[in-house]
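Usage

Read records sequentially. Each one opens with the input sequence:
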Amino acid sequence: MADRLDNPIDKRQWFFRRSSGGGDGFGRFAEATARFMGSPRFVLYMTIFVIAWIGANLMLAGISEKAAWDPYPFILLNLAFSTQASYSAPLIMLAQNRQDARDRVVAEQDRIRAERNLADTEYLAREIAGLRLALQDVATRDFVRSELRDMLEDLRAEIAADAANASSNEADAEAEADGALRPLEDGHTGQ
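and closes with the structure output:
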């Protein structure tokens, strides 16, 4: 479909038409091919193919020299390997280039994230430093606790002194009370 309504639809054949994906489909194909060629399954399939190729040619060469389609030096097999290598090498390189591009994007995003984290950390460090400077004028929890402890000790000492004074006053009062009721020398109580 046309991108805009004032542009006519392209009537070219489908195999001449350019895709709007920018070659992304071929890149995905190259990555899939490279991924498959690097797998143990591919090595197993290739090993089975080579064994079958060589076995069939040796067996047919044993029956008749003309029956084998690729006799002993296996030149056709060598040509097939060369062709496969000539096509797979650029596909693997394309897949690696695409992976490098993705890695560059990820590295750039990591760099941006690291810069943002560094800026946030520096901001928080400045804020903490500002708070520490502001807290120098404010009484801290430890300072308040030590002042309360000192006041508590002073109150305890004052209470202990008052209690000692009260007990000595009581002793004096008892002594006076005992002295007031004590009989005088002539035998009277003094009342």
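Summary fields computed downstream for this record:
- The chain has a mean pLDDT of 84.
- The two ends are 132 Å apart (CA to CA).
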